[in-house]
Amino acid sequence: MASFYFVNDQQIADGTAVFSPNFRGLKYGDGFFETMRFANGRLMHLLLHAERIRKSAMLLKMTLPAGWDEIAWETQITSFCAKNKINGARIRVSFLRDSEGYYTPTTNEVCIVTEIQNDGFQSFQWNNQGLQIGTYNEMVKNGNYTSMLKTCSALVYTMAGIYAKEKQWDDCIILNDFGRPCEAISSNIFVVANDFIITPPLSEYCVDGIMRKVVIQLIEAYGYTLQERPITEVELNAADEIFLTNSVQGIQWVGHLHGKPMKNSVSKVLFDQLNRIQ
User: What are the tens digits of pLDDT across the range 27-39?
Assistant: First the structure.
């Protein structure tokens, strides 16, 4: 898949050296990012993503450029994609504090790095096999007000990804410091148990996912009963069905949890409805 990059408003070639070894994003992971899908000539759920960008910048005390807004940024992306005949893409935008200083920065200005990864998908893709997943126990996700943000300090997700690869899983469930499932490597989790669909609340330290919000609205619109409450490992292992959500892949159903076969009756209905509203 071809990838294209912009640093602030300037396009750069893949592999071009841009930042010095002293750059804060490299030394401290001082920044946050937003990932979304481009399809059918637009950035999906743009206003929800823009709201989270502003909230993340505020909480991390970063100053967005005076001229930045979601409309101008979307125009830049859509114009570029139209010119290059890109119909479907994964978009990642990183906001990195661009400042001197050691742990304490001298300013709060940001550098914006945008990646456009052309994958050609104009709708979400259903995986007929389902995901093979398990539970990651070697590290936990600690709780503070940054837990719900997509910060560049993502070591727990990296280590969980390595663990999943070693186990030959597609993904794995991450626990919080209460020992309860809170999310997957790059997704929020939903559990179907009897007549309920359960998802951990933000107080369980899961990311405040955009697709999580969209799917919660779908669940309520189509008459399912949603519970936002903590989930135990016992409940997870006893679930009839588990599915994961994120902005790039939509809804992914779990085919096996620790080798146990899972159903997909609810997740497939929600997936089909999700594709209809995009």
Answer: 899 999 999 999 9
